[in-house]
């Protein structure tokens, strides 16, 4: 009877180790599959994969045109028109600023910090604005605090003295650490 209990514990242990490997892999493949399928179906092309290649090529070509000296004023004119439309202005500029925080010239989320919220509680985040003098708050900085297990977060304005930059910390590792709820490992900061 004791060997049967030992065997069932061993089988349960193997099952959970297998689940720990299979579940994240399956979810990753599932998400990538549906993203690729969505992008591929943007254009109704009968050849699988051709739609995503055309979308990728079209976006790259538009990026090329936006950088050419001759066509750049056209893109700037379209943006100025978008800025004049009340609701579109808010949506467009918010989405553009968020996208440029990850790609583009104005990258954010590259300065990981620890923010003291109270005497015994601190949170990890990223400085998104160093200078808030435009709203007469020279002593504050804007800090984005992502949520764990979610792709959302909050932006807080915190006193400079409560924000400490994590020198040598890899911003990608810090983001993974936060999003995983502190489960992912953080490597030793470089000195």
From TrEMBL:
InterPro entries: COV1-like
Pfam family, any one: DUF502
Record's keyword terms, sorted: Membrane, Transmembrane, Transmembrane helix
Organism: Echinicola rosea
Name of the protein in question: DUF502 domain-containing protein
Residues spanning the membrane: 12-36, 48-70
Domain of life: Bacteria
